[in-house]
Design brief:
This protein is an alpha/beta fold. 41% of the residues lie in helices and 18% in strands. The structure holds adenosine-5'-diphosphate and magnesium ion (MG).
């Protein structure tokens, strides 16, 4: 027997060349191969006689070859092989294009199994390029439910299938991790059967069952992992903070806190003095003032003699936080510092020394805070901003930099409860459902192309009033490259033909991080009038002087994404506007966009979005911080998700610590998942 950890090269027929191709698909070991699940199936089980074949409906049929195949060389690169086959009901002419294999393999007088669809015209029926196998061969492409695998150049579906089959025959599939009780309760296949059936299902129904099992398993592992982390943290003790008097902090604020901000701060203070380690998510719409809540928590921590750290997903956001927090804290005698990847080696070393010595009390930065080189003197609180950009693993990593520091995460993405459980199952939640007073809601309009001249005039008007405009170009699904092209072309058009006298800048996802940051920072400094962008501007940067957001082909975006984009304006004192353009005429689509014009309640929009598009789209592809689920489709499998969450919670409560074989295997799998999630994040 082979082991799951053995390399694919131990398989017959898999040499270095094949191994390289498998590596393209991230397949290195037998386990990777067995976990390379089909993306779909083709039902090739139906066997009929030739006279029962229907036009354009593929099926299998048994037939004898009636003549020797003849190949005609039509021109360079085009050979046509013709052959006639028959069963007891009818004859059928087959045609193969450039198929040497068919020409050589099909023999006069022999019987084969074919799979294909007939096409018919007035001359009669014929079939083009059917697949075929000899009667005694083990079915690969006929008489079965055929798994369709994700492929790469040089690796055919049949090659993957053969390799998987071989792997399954020489080693056991991954161990069972679902407790018997759970499998029975939810009607779940055993691991043994599921791993075979997902690749070699006897029927479409069995393929479905196998898929259900694997989806359930993924969710179960993930939510059990979160629950374990939560239980683990709950056991951790922190010394209760004694000094909870924030009066100096409140006094230094240039405004009064909103009721929602105060409530969140009170919840945090309650955590900090409880003696248990805080794990709290602050969820509030863009502009709801989450930074001040983080500042209050940091102030309290520092006042009790510990350090605080705040991590932001981009350099520019980290810098912005640094400047506003430093302004707030310097008069209070608190030392704040900035640590980002783009600082010089010398700067970083100096900052790290000051962090290590404890001289700096509040470190604000990017991923650089996570690096090995950053050591804290006494880290008491970790804050992550715009949490949806970070993964569970990263949040664990920053926590590991202190003696069980308190954890505060902030997110502007309002998330419906089910999904919040999935992403933040290990956290308590505070919700900020109120904006600071005097904030004028962003006025939103939906228009079609006939308004183009007016849109342009409106952009110019912003400029005349010394304000700035964002123009977001259409999202091109599946292709960042096309989005980038659209934005680049649009920026050129605006500059050359519409606004030759304005300063048009461009920002998109294929620019280097440093270039993006520079473009964004320049715009924030007012060095351009119009910033043409792809969706990269979504996250947290404050450009209070920007008063207009134009979103082209808005129907191509999710509602939540539109809401996030809209949140880029309306952050200053001036009245701000959002214009959604769309050529779409579908009443449902237009209805959704009109709803967005009427409400600015992020949670309502999120619920609506989830109903309409499902969470897969909801999160956008790369920014969820969730591990990549292999089989589960977040938008399709909500019920399974709920079941798995419930099952894992029950399991943890009742038998989570039992040393059963399943329990041990599950823990190992959780460990793998969380380290893998870390590996795939930038
Ligand atoms: P977000 O929740 O999007 O992170 P910020 O913390 O960046 O929001 O706050 C947005 C703006 O609102 C900032 O300019 C901040 O100074 C301001 N602000 C925050 N709280 C209040 C308040 N209670 N009253 C007035 N302005 C506030
Ligand atoms: Mg913020």
């Amino acid at each position: 027997m082979a082991r799951l950890s053995d390399p694919v090269t131990i398989l017959k027929g898999v040499g270095p060349t094949m191994a390289k191709r498998f590596a393209q698909l991230n397949i290195f070991t037998l386990q990777d191969l067995i976990c390379h699940f089909p993306r779909g199936y083709e039902d090739r089980t139906r066997l009929v006689s030739i006279d029962k074949l229907e036009v354009d409906v593929p099926a299998c049929f048994k037939a004898v070859v009636m003549n020797t195949p003849r190949t005609a060389h039509i021109r360079k690169g085009l050979d046509i092989t013709r052959v006639q086959v028959a069963d007891h009901t009818a004859r059928l002419n087959l045609t193969f294009f450039n198929n040497k294999f068919a020409a050589e393999q099909l023999r006069y007088g022999e019987e084969y199994i074919f799979y294909g669809a007939v096409s018919g015209d007035f001359v009669g029926y014929s079939m083009t390029n059917p697949v075929f196998e000899t009667m005694d061969a083990q079915p690969i492409a006929t008489r079965r439910v055929l798994p369709i695998y994700p492929l790469t150049a040089g690796l055919s579906n049949a090659a993957v299938l053969k390799a998987v089959r071989q792997a399954l025959s020489i080693c056991d599939p991954p161990a069972e991790i679902l407790p018997e009780s759970v499998r029975q309760r939810y009607g779940i296949l055993s691991a043994d059967r599921a791993y075979y059936a997902i690749h070699e299902p006897q029927s479409m129904a069995e393929a479905e069952l196998a898929k259900k099992r694997l989806i359930f398993e993924e969710f179960f592992v993930f939510s059990a992992g979160l629950s374990l982390m939560r239980a683990e943290r709950a056991r951790k003790k922190s010394k209760p903070y004694e000094n909870l008097d924030l009066t100096p902090f409140y006094k230094s604020l240039p405004f009064t806190l909103t009721g929602a901000q105060q409530r969140a701060i009170d919840e945090i203070l309650e955590d900090l003095r409880s003696g248990a380690t805080m794990n709290r998510l602050v969820q509030g719409d863009v502009g709801s003032g989450k930074t001040m809540i983080a500042a209050a928590a940091a102030f309290c921590t520092i006042q009790n003699g510990h350090q605080a750290a705040m991590m932001a997903p981009t350099e520019i956001l980290a810098e912005q936080h640094y400047h506003s927090l430093n302004k707030l804290f310097a008069p209070l005698g608190v030392k704040v510092t900035l640590l980002t990847g783009s600082m010089t080696v010398k700067q970083k070393r100096e900052v790290r020394e000051r962090i290590a010595s404890g001289e700096v009390q509040f470190a604000v930065g990017t991923h650089a805070l996570l690096s090995e080189a950053t050591v804290f003197h006494d880290l008491g609180l970790v804050i992550t901003d715009e949490q949806h950009r970070f993964g569970v693993a990263q949040r664990a990593k920053l926590s590991s930099k202190g003696q069980d520091p308190h954890l505060l995460v902030m997110s502007a993405t309002p998330i419906p409860r089910t999904l919040a459980l999935l992403m933040y199952g290990d956290l308590e939640v505070s919700i900020i459902n109120e904006l600071p007073p005097g904030r004028q809601p962003v006025e939103t309009f939906l228009v079609n192309e006939s308004y183009r001249a007016r849109i342009n005039a409106f952009i110019r008007k912003q400029k005349e009033e010394n304000h700035q405009t964002f123009v977001v170009c259409p999202a091109v699904e599946e292709s960042e490259e096309l989005s980038v092209k659209a934005a680049t072309v649009w920026a050129e058009t605006l500059q050359q033909t519409v606004f030759p006298d304005l300063r048009i800048a461009l920002i998109h996802g294929q620019m280097k991080a440093a270039e993006k940051e520079a473009a964004m920072a320049a715009f924030a400094r007012g060095e351009a009038d119009v910033l043409v962008a792809t969706t990269v501007i979504e996250v947290g940067v404050d450009v209070p002087n920007a008063t207009l957001m134009v979103i082209e082909d808005a129907d191509r975006f999710g509602l939540s994404q539109l809401h996030q984009l809209r949140g880029r304006v309306g952050r200053g004192g001036a009245k701000s506007y959002c214009i959604l353009t769309s050529q779409n005429r579908n009443p449902d689509t237009l209805g959704r966009l009109k709803a967005l014009c009427k409400t600015t309640d992020g949670f309502r929009i999120a619920e609506e979005d989830l109903k309409l598009r499902g969470p897969g789209d909801f999160f956008g592809s790369r920014q969820s911080g969730l591990p990549a689920f292999r089989v589960a489709n977040l938008s399709m499998d909500l019920q399974t998700l709920k079941d798995a969450q419930q099952a894992s919670a029950n399991w943890i409560d009742n038998e989570g610590t039992a040393q059963t074989p399943e329990g041990i295997a599950l823990r190992a799998r959780i460990g793998e998942l969380f380290t893998r999630a870390e590996g795939t994040m930038n």
